[in-house]
Amino acid sequence: MDSISDPKLFAVAAAFSLVGLAFVSTKLASFVKALLDLYVFSGIPLKKFGAGNGAWAVITGATDGIGKEFARQLANKKFNVLLVSRTLSKLETVAAEITTESGMEVKVFTMDFAKGDPQDFARLGDLIQTLNVGVLVNNVGTNHDFPTPFAEEADQVIDNIIQVNVKGAMSMTKLVLPQMLEKKNGLILNLGSFAGLVATPYLSVYSAGKAFLSTWSQAIGTELRPQGILVEHVNTYFVVSAMSKIRKPTALIPLAKPYVASVLAKIGLPCGADVPFTSTPYPTHGLVNWVINNVFSKTFWVNKNDSIQRSIRKRALRKREREAAAAHKTN
């Protein structure tokens, strides 16, 4: 007796076929949605958050790379901008450039997020309360010098990553929330990383900090959405910057200008991400995010990261050995 003539076997085969069809259909629908988000749909207009109406954007880590580009593009979209970073001379240079280019008002505030000085945050809070803040960009960040096993990592490096990447974002958000809650409007962008999407051995503290940023954004995003405040965790692969130590753009690694433009154009759209209050707006990043979510297992991707970081570590150690040898010869 074959399966076609056996009603029970036929029913089981049909059920499995339906499950398979539903699974494939769901995957296909999510992929099509990602493509539409990335290439067709527009995000929430920045006017909703006060662009052109006297609102301010506060950007941390604003003198280089992504942070500087956020400040420039938000000013060009008619936000006044408050630049927060460590070096006054760089802040003044960027402020002058933005004022000349956009005609918008620019203020600067110097602080070292690695110190986590409560007095710095108190003084910054006093300044922020005099401004109508519509947007906060939590961009400031730091990383391991190069891939290092946790057991060998310096305590100061660990402390700096937690202080800057985790506590810095929370402290800044606390400063802007009172007025955003009062007016029931605001946008908080938390700059994340694929290192938080997939655990990254040898960058363990940075990876864990970015994973925290993802789950924290989901939690406070749920809390604040009824109050009219949008929290968005911006998932990011590599971007050409001093922090990434990458100098040449590729299809997967954009310059800061097109990357930031994609973020601001896709506010509120997941773009390949599959967790709440998260967006992966740069097109190739969004496609890779979708693949990570839907192809192979998390174990596969963690092991892939392990292999990549081991290779980077070997190259970094060989470079240090060459530099040490050259310095020894010079001496």
From TrEMBL:
Pathway stated in the Swiss-Prot or TrEMBL entry: Lipid metabolism; fatty acid biosynthesis
Its membrane topology: Single-pass membrane protein
Reactions this protein catalyses: a very-long-chain (3R)-3-hydroxyacyl-CoA + NADP(+) = a very-long-chain 3-oxoacyl-CoA + NADPH + H(+)
GO biological process: fatty acid elongation; sphingolipid biosynthetic process; very long-chain fatty acid biosynthetic process
Enzyme Commission number(s) of this protein: 1.1.1.330
Family designation: Belongs to the short-chain dehydrogenases/reductases (SDR) family.
PROSITE patterns named in the record: ADH_SHORT
Cellular component aspect of the GO annotation: endoplasmic reticulum membrane
Organism: Hesseltinella vesiculosa
Keyword Lipid biosynthesis: yes
Active site location: Y206
Leader peptide range in chain numbering: none
Name of one Pfam family that matches: adh_short
Single GO MF annotation: ketoreductase activity
Gene3D superfamilies attached to this UniProt entry: NAD(P)-binding Rossmann-like Domain
Protein name (database record): Very-long-chain 3-oxoacyl-CoA reductase
UniProt keyword list: Endoplasmic reticulum, Fatty acid biosynthesis, Fatty acid metabolism, Lipid biosynthesis, Lipid metabolism, Membrane, NADP, Oxidoreductase, Transmembrane, Transmembrane helix
Compartment list: Endoplasmic reticulum membrane
Function (record text): Component of the microsomal membrane bound fatty acid elongation system, which produces the 26-carbon very long-chain fatty acids (VLCFA) from palmitate. Catalyzes the reduction of the 3-ketoacyl-CoA intermediate that is formed in each cycle of fatty acid elongation. VLCFAs serve as precursors for ceramide and sphingolipids.
Residue numbers binding substrate: S193
